[in-house]
Amino acid sequence: MDSSRPSLSSRPYLARALFEWLLDHDLTPHIVVDAEHPQVEVPRQFVQNGQIVLNLSPNAVRELAMENDAISFEARFGGQPMRVMVPSDALVAIYGRENGVGMVFGHEPVMPQPAESAEDELPALAEVERDADTSQEKEASEEKGEGSRRPPKGKPSLRVIK
User: Fold this and answer.
1) What is the C-alpha separation between 77 and 61, in angstroms, rounded?
2) What span, in angstroms and rounded, lies between the C-alpha atoms of 11 and 134?
3) Is the pTM here over 0.85, yes or no?
4) pLDDT tens across 132-156, in order?
5) N or C end of the chain: which has fewer CB within 10 A?
6) What distance in Å separates the CA atoms of residue 118 and residue 79, rounded to the nearest whole number?
7) How many CB atoms lie within 10 A of CB 12?
8) Sign of the alpha-carbon dihedral angle for 31, 34, 37, 42
9) Rounded-to-integer distance, Cα 70 and Cα 63, Å
10) What pLDDT was estimated at residue 65?
11) DSSP readout, the chain?
């Protein structure tokens, strides 16, 4: 799992934001995890109906890392220390224990990976700027009733027309 590249999923970003929001409002953040996901590492004795609910409060976990690819931390379960690993796509929900406010993550469309040759298809910045300047000149000359195009003088500026 490579956390150096930005995630194509919005789930880890939303989870981090909701986690911070829950803590800011003195709520206890809990996550619901799909325990049947092949890369999930959770205490199996607490799994019910293929899911497990985990308390992420700072008092309950150590070394919490909410990365783009996974949430990981150390916690004690039945007195036994364990390293927990939850891949981002196994995260089902995050909510506050006290009031249930949070978010359930459904099936999320993933942003397609950009093609390597996509840069060749994009216009260069100079082309975009030149095209924008040309269209602005044309609009200005049409407003003045002029048919000929004159080169721009100085920096472009905005002016209020009443």
Assistant:
1) 11
2) 42
3) no
4) 555 555 555 555 555 555 555 666 6
5) C
6) 53
7) 21
8) positive
9) 13
10) 97
11) --TTSPPS-SHHHHHHHHHHHHHHTT--EEEEEETTSTT-B--GGG-BTTEEEEE--TTT-EEEEE-SSEEEEEEEETTEEEEEEEEGGGEEEEEETTT--EEE----PPPPPPPTTHHHHSPPHHHHHHHHHHHHHHHHHHHHT--S-----SS-------
| Residue 85, beta-bridge partner list | 41, 72
Encoded amino acid at 67, one letter: E
| Rounded Cα–Cα distance for residues 3 and 1 (Å) | 6
Query: pLDDT tens digits, residue range 52-64?
Result: 999 999 999 999 9
Which one, of 130, 5, 127, lies nearest residue 69 by Cα? 5
Residue 102: other Cβ atoms inside 10 A? 20
Q: Using 50, 70 and 90 to split pLDDT, how confident is the model at 9?
A: confident
The count of residues in the chain is 162
Q: In what order do the strands lie in the sheet with 62-66?
A: 62-66, 70-77, 80-87
